[in-house]
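Risk mitigation, structural track. In case the binding assays with iron/sulfur cluster fail to produce interpretable data, a predicted complex structure has been prepared as a fallback.
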Amino acid sequence: MNAFLEPQAPSISDSDPLAISNSDPLAPSSSSQLAEGSQPSGKIDLLNFDRQELAEELQARLGFESYRSKQLVAWLYRHRATSFEVMTNISKQARAALAEHFTISRPTAVQVQQSRDGTRKYLFQLDDGNMVESVLIKQTARYTLCVSSQVGCAIGCRFCRTAQMGLVRHLKTAEIIGQVLAVKDDIAGLPLDQDGLKVDFTNIVFMGMGEPLHNVDNVIRTVRLLNDELGLDFSSRKITVSTSGLVPAIRKLGASGAGANLAVSLNATTNEVRTRIMPITKRWPLESLLEALREYPLKRGKRITIEYVMLAGVTDTVDDLRRLPQLLTGIPVKVNLIPYNANAGLGFDAPRRDWVFHWQESLLDAGLNSTIRWSKGDDIDAACGQLATVYEKTKRREKAERQQPQGGIGTPERTIAEAS
Ligand code: SF4
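Fallback model:
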C-alpha cells in the first residue's frame, strides 16, 4: 500500500470540521518519549530527548550524573556523532552501557536535488519507509533550512500539494532534528558556492511537509534542542515555526517559552474565502486566530510573520488589500507576500508581478513591514510535498516496469542533479 495515497488518518472534514473526539485528526500530539523513542531493537533513540529529559533518562536507566547529558549533547549535535565509540571523553564502561540501551539515528537521504539557484532539496526515508523532505534554500547572503514535521498533513489547504496526501503520521523529535543533522553531514565537505558563500545554514524554518503545531510537543522539543548552546546553538531569532492557525497550539507554543519566531499562514481576509482555501478556518475563524496573535507573548522588538499566499483573483483583490492592514491592527507583524507558483497545478493562478509589487508598496504605505518571497528552486520539485509525490510516482512506475519482461530499473539511488 502506498502510504502517500492511502492516508491512515483523515483530513479535516468540510462537513464536520468542529468535531472533537478521541480520533480527532487535529488534536495536538502528546507524546511519551519512551513509547516513541523505542526502536525495533528495543533500544531508545537518544535524539528524542532534550537535554533535561536526557539527564533524567540517563539517571533513571544507568544512574549517570547530569554532566553526562552535557557531554552527550555536545557529541550528538556539535560533533554529530553517530556511534558511541567516538565519544572519547566518556569511559569505555559508560560507552558500553550507553550502547546497550540506546541508539543514535539518522534519516536516509534517498535523493538530493541541486537547483541552479543554489537550493538543495532532500528526500529522506524514515525507518518505517515513509518519506519526508527538507530544503536548503539559498538566499542572498545565507542559507535557510526548511524541515518537515509530519508525513503528509491533515489540514487540507487547497493550494498545497502535501494536503493531497492526508496525514500519515507525526514525526518523532529524532526524525525532525535528524533532518537538520543529516543535511549538516551532507554539506560538511562542500566547496564554497558559485557566489563564494559557505554552504551552511544559519536559519531554520518549520515550513516543510506537515503542520508543525499539530505535532506541537515534538516541535517544541526540537526547538529546545536547536537552542541548546552545548549543541547546535541556534538563537531564537534564527528559528521560525509556521502554522496554519491551530489556536490552542499557538498558545501552547507561546507558553512553552521555546526560542523560536512564529509565522502564521493567513492567506485571506475573510472567513468565507479562508474557509474555502483553508478549511481549518471553520474550526478557528479569523477572529479567534487574530485574538491568539494579539495575546501571543513576544519578546521586545519581535514580530509575528504573517505569511500571505497571493492566489490571483482569490486572495489578492483590491478589497483584500484594504482589509489586511485593518485586520492586523494592534499586532506586531511583518507581512511576507508569497506569489503563488502556478506550476503546482492545483487550479489557482499566479498573480502578476506588478500587482505583487503594488501590494507590497500599499502595505508599506499602510505602515506594515512587508517582503516578497518568490519561489526558489523552480528547476527542481520545490513546492512542499512535491518531491515525495514525484518520488512515489517514480517508484510505482519503476515497479510496473520491473514487472514487465524487459523491466529492471535498479533500486533508487541518491542522485544529485548538477547545476548547469
Ligand atoms: S500548507 Fe502547510 S498546513 Fe496547509 S496542507 Fe500544506 S503542509 Fe499542511
